[in-house]
Design goal:
Helix content is 57%, strand content 14%. The chain has a five-stranded parallel β-sheet, sandwiched between helices. The chain has helices at residues 10-17, 24-37, 45-59, 61-73, 84-96, 104-116, 127-130; strands spanning 5-8, 40-44, 77-80, 120-122, 134-136. The protein has a single domain (5-136), classed as Rossmann fold (3-Layer(aba) Sandwich). The longest helix has 15 residues, at 45-59. The protein has seven helices and five strands, in the order βααβααβααβαβ. By secondary structure, the chain is of the alpha/beta class.
């Protein structure tokens, strides 16, 4: 899944869903860009769960269900399910980087990206920069 794949993180999905989010304009522009540039948009099951919960809490049940339906309707969005190996790598990473406040979802995302050789991520989370990934849009 190398080359033309990008991971889409929770913050990007939320910013797309919430027009009042401070990152909404950048998210919409970036989503248009990545949809042209990348063949596959990758999400983990943990990103889906985290995004659903945020949208449900912030925007309500209908918006959260719409998010799930839209994910399922797009053949370009690929869901990756974490497994014991990915989660083990994530837990090792969390243990090694005690000085960082990476979330469990972040660490699983990093492990998935390494496994799938994905170098770019659509996010507003600086943790991905810290972990050495190329972030879209550029938030350095």
């Amino acid at each position: 899944m190398t080359g033309k794949s990008v991971l889409v993180d929770t913050g990007a999905w939320y910013a797309l869903a919430d027009q009042s989010d401070r990152h909404n304009r950048a998210a919409v522009a970036t989503y248009r860009q990545i949809f042209k540039e990348f063949q596959k948009l990758v999400v983990t099951n943990l990103i889906v769960a985290e995004t659903y919960a945020l949208i449900r809490r912030g925007l309500g049940h209908k918006a959260a269900i719409d998010f799930l339906k839209n994910l399922g309707a797009s053949p370009r969005i690929i869901r990756v399910f974490s497994d014991i190996d990915i989660e083990g790598q994530a837990e090792d990473l969390l243990d090694r980087h005690r000085d960082q406040d990476f979330s469990y979802t972040d660490a699983v995302s990093f492990s998935c990206m390494k496994r799938l050789q994905i170098k770019r991520v659509f996010t507003f989370d600086r943790h991905f920069v810290t972990a050495g990934f190329e972030v879209l849009p550029d938030i350095k």
